[in-house]
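Following up on my earlier thread - several people asked me to post the actual chain instead of describing it. Fair enough. Here it is, all 317 residues.
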Amino acid sequence: MAEIGIDIDQAKSFLDRGQLIGLPTETVYGLAGNAFNESAVLKIFQVKNRPSFDPLIAHTNSLEKVKTFVKDIPDVALDLAEAFWPGPLTLLLPKKKRIPLLLTSGLKTVAVRIPDHPITTELLEKLDYPLAAPSANPFGYVSPTTAHHVQDQLGEAIPYILDGGPCRVGIESTIIGFENNKPVVYRLGGKRIDEIEKLIGTVRIRTNMSSDPTAPGMLKSHYAPVKRVVIGDLEELIPKLNPLKVAIISFQKDYPEVPENHKFILSKTGNIDEAAANLFSAMRKMDKTAANCIVAEYVPEIGLGKAINDRLKRAQA
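Reply from S.P.:
Thanks for posting it. Predicted structure:
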């Protein structure tokens, strides 16, 4: 079983030898390996049972390092990087040959970001290669937001998990690519669209559910518990359901008729950021109940609300 610890040098030693580790970011925990090492990248796909047509994200700690493995950074991408890195924003940029085609699923662009987590930043500073690091969970399942989530699911497949505590943001990064030098959002995530548009103007959102993704996180069915997820109006649904046979994820309201161990309130104060941070933990907790299915509701589409609803929609699919 993977050891959980805070030894950065030990984590580096495993990575230098082509092995994989779990590591924290501000968004979710990642399953990390040397992005320049095709063997390590292949292990990521194997451990996650992830289809090879779903590309990975390369993580590093500085814009200078990014420039060593991408061909070009458009001016608008540079503006975004300087404003929002480190942070929950991923950019799709033309790759150099040193990035394996396996990592990009054959695409000519590589997804890149600089994460905002102190222990991972310290690790990345010590590395002369970026880390490929999709979420550290079996493909399609709920993303992990604690080190123990990683250990529960992948602990037998990796030697070490860096423990950085619970993830602050709790949902994956926003992904932006560029078509004819115009920014396009391919995945809604931890960087709010209103903040992006305040910097660069209106952006096109193209988060279609796809079986042939051009960026990570675009597949139709994703971020899903084992139990069936149903999205609807809880006010209408709960009176029609047996509270002992369903698990409830509500945004703000409590439903006293549902047993305590069968319900999770994302934010009692109606705070969207808190709801985002709690979403995947809520799915995991409700997935472990004796309920037959999970019933949830969409949240207000303000701030990170759009990203939360995107994850719920894909979990339901």
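The first strand starts at residue 3 and ends at 5. That should answer part of your original question.
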